[in-house]
Each structure stands twice: as structure tokens, then as C-alpha cells.
Amino acid sequence: MKKSAKAELRAKSLDDLKTMMTEARVGLMQSRFAKAVEGKAISIKNRDQRRQVARLETMIAEKQAAQAGAK
To answer: Among 7, 22, 61, 70, which is 20 to 30 Å from 53 by CA?
Structure first.
């Protein structure tokens, strides 16, 4: 992921990041079901989705820690 894309994610609010994470998790779950039912192999897409979820979780944790530190 490019640095500019990461900067855009960091600029988003906590609620936006949580919404994006739930959408990414739903997409990942749907692709897992498609793989199980239809036998479609979407391994590269799954890897990218897993990484995106991890990025979002990391940024959410950073924002929550920053908010807790500011209080």
C-alpha cells in the first residue's frame, strides 16, 4: 500500500475506520463462502483483504490509544 493511501486512512475518523473494517470483514467472509461453495480460488484478493483488515485494526487501535492518552 502506498504511503499516500495510508495517510488518507489515518486522516479518517474513528467511526469511518470502524465502518470500513466491518465492510472489509464482510467482504472477506463472502469470499470465503464463495471459495467453499463454488470452489473459486481468490487467494490474492483474500490476502489483500486480510491485510486491509489488519491495517484498519491497527489504525483504530492507534486512534483509541491517542484518545485515551488525551483524556
So the answer is: 70
